[in-house]
Amino acid sequence: MASPATTVTDPPNEFDTDTDYGSDFSPEQEQIVEHLLSGKYAEDDNPIKNEVEHHDPRQSLRLPRMFGREERSPLFQAARAAERIAEQIAHSITSGEQPDLSDRMDTVPGQEAIVQPPKEETPDLRSPIERFRTPPKKALSVTDLVSPAWCELQYWYTLTKHGRKKRTPAMKEGTRVHKVLEEQVYTTVRVRVQTREDAWGLRIWNVIQGLRTLRDTGQTRELEIWGTIDGMVVNGVIDELSYTCPDTDLEESLQKSRDEPPPDQTTIADFFEAAGAKSLEQATKSKRQTHSQKVYLCDVKTRSGRSVPSASAFKPTKIQLMLYHRLLSALAANTVDFSILASRYNLDATKVLSDEFIIQVGSLNDEVFYDTLAAPGSQDSALNGTQDSMSILLAHNTLNLLWSLMITEFQLTLPEGADSLGRILKAEYRSRDDGAIVGTKTLAMDDLELATFISREMEWWKGERQAEGVVVEEAFKCRSCDFADDCEWRIKKVEEAREKARMSRRRTSAV
């Protein structure tokens, strides 16, 4: 596998002076040393504390921004006004401190508090997947599979002590940066949903709009994807898709290593196929016209400093990008069985979506579909040609039909299936303070490395082995861990180190 390429932008040096005295470190190196001493460096790279969870409890419709349009419809303006009022009400309710009622739980008026004797905890021998990711709990996410790459034990303690990842200040700041980036492409409007099927219909519709936005503008953000890994339903959200290759040099070297002809080179087979063509030039032109542009994945990470992670700290992000690539490839190849998802989320895929949902989404989403959405030869002639969102929703008013429409959009966007996906992946690092890009890392997709990682991590999720802590070389991760003081793995490693030191002293004394 090609080694990741790294680019770091140079921030302005705020400490330049005319003095002859100073540090031999560059500003970036000084920040890295400072973060190492404070423990913040590890926190920036820890997906358990820093990974933005893309779960918005609100049901929001994502409308592609229409640049150059100065006025919007009264319906859109009314929806935005209602959205602002709802947010103000929600903020006023949640901004206050919640009272601590723990000392009143067992108190009866006029009597002394009843002291409950401590209960002996029975060890829970269920696997992590059974305890934390079976209905009615949420399904596995890409974050669930990536977080153990930082430290399995830390994620195990997080789940067992808190039940889920705690939302940290770093996550809140990261969410703000991601929201600003999303709003460069979309405007979100809250939609009322009547049923579980409505909520899922909105999620699928947003993916459809995301794919269209990618084709129309060359970029889309926050695209939700679903699939299965080792028989388990997994979902995730890709930060960015675009037609821009993040590292052309790496892509060229990857192409050469595969010893493949250029995509526009006419082969012998192509030549004979085009024997009826007027000339070889026309055959080559036909070949080029059928070759599509590739789509590339990017994941955005936020950081407190102006640096990019080291190789060992980069592993979770590397695995995350490759997981996205695998899930997106399966959707592009139409190998994801929606009935499995419907069963996992307890959905009736044949239930008609509510009239209110269709009216809301169809009225607000006034984008026009110009592509031919029905497959060639399809009996659904109502989809051929130009139609508005309302007509399309009425023609696809169940989850099964809406999913089929989404797959058609994938085929329009990625006409060659998984081969339309570029195999160069990018991680983009942005400052939490101002959202500015501080550096990037690129890597090549490695199917074997991903398969090896998934196989080992699923052993832990399925309870086939115990969670493991970090190796000694990655002990820096413990500095930012909330469970370091009680971590059995860490205590064991410390004792092993002490025992080795004692044995070494004994051997020295004997000599």
UniProtKB/TrEMBL annotation:
Belongs to the EXO5 family. GO terms for molecular function: 4 iron, 4 sulfur cluster binding; single-stranded DNA 5'-3' DNA exonuclease activity. The keyword Iron applies. The keyword Translocase does not apply. Residues 47-59 have a biased composition (Basic and acidic residues). Keywords: 4Fe-4S, Exonuclease, Hydrolase, Iron, Iron-sulfur, Metal-binding, Nuclease. Its cofactor is [4Fe-4S] cluster. GO terms for cellular component: mitochondrion; nucleus. Monomer. Residues 1-10 have a biased composition (Polar residues). This is Exonuclease V. One of its GO terms (biological process) is interstrand cross-link repair. InterPro entries: EXOV (IPR019190), PDDEXK-like_dom_sf (IPR011604). The lineage of its organism: Eukaryota, Fungi, Dikarya, Ascomycota, Pezizomycotina. Residues 1-25, 47-68 are annotated as: Disordered.
